[in-house]
Amino acid sequence: MCPPSSCIPLPAENEKWTNEAIFMSLFNFKRGKPLPENVTSDVNPFQYKPSDLPADLWYLWSGVKKDAEFGFWQETEAPCETFSNSTIIGSRTTLQFYEGRASHSRKTGWMMQ
Questions:
Q1: Backbone angles phi, psi at 28, to 5 degrees
Q2: Which of 37, 42, 71, 102 could serve as a FRET partner for 4 with CA atoms 20 to 30 Å apart?
Q3: Under 8 Å CB-to-CB from 24, ≥6 apart: which residues?
Q4: Could you tell me if 79 and 92 are in contact, meaning their C-beta atoms sit under 8 angstroms apart?
Q5: Burial, 79: exposed, middle or buried (Cβ in 10 Å; 0-12, 13-18, 19+)?
């Protein structure tokens, strides 16, 4: 569990993180502070069917995106660059999960940002 003073407040359910909140969380994480208690960097969410992952957990993943055994994640918009002091420090995008393979896929309600 992370003490309240070292965590940024989490957004309400169905609310998106701001670029500033993401930056501060990653900045603090790189400096050795813990991630918020409902964020993990130990699991690659791309390897699992979304329904098999806990709904109340956020995933921090910076590795290579791979298709899951049961489907794939597809970008719904172009990546948005994240800046700090006029320097690009990363990017983020919204992904939609599709069951099956690309030629015979079905769009689901699972999304990730």
A1: -65, -40
A2: 42
A3: 8
A4: yes
A5: exposed
What pLDDT does residue 15 have?
56
Q: What's the rounded Cα separation, in Å, for the pair 40 and 102?
A: 29
Chain segment 52-84, per-residue pLDDT in tens: 888 777 777 776 666 677 888 888 888 888 777
pLDDT digits (tens, 9 = 90+) for 8-67: 444 554 456 676 777 777 778 878 888 777 788 888 888 888 888 887 777 777 766 666
Q: What is the pLDDT of residue 3?
A: 35
Rounded Cα–Cα distance for residues 100 and 98 (Å): 6
Task: Compute how many other C-beta atoms are within 10 angstroms of the C-beta atom of residue 34.
Answer: 13
Q: What is the DSSP letter of 43?
A: -
- 82: its two tokens: 């994240």
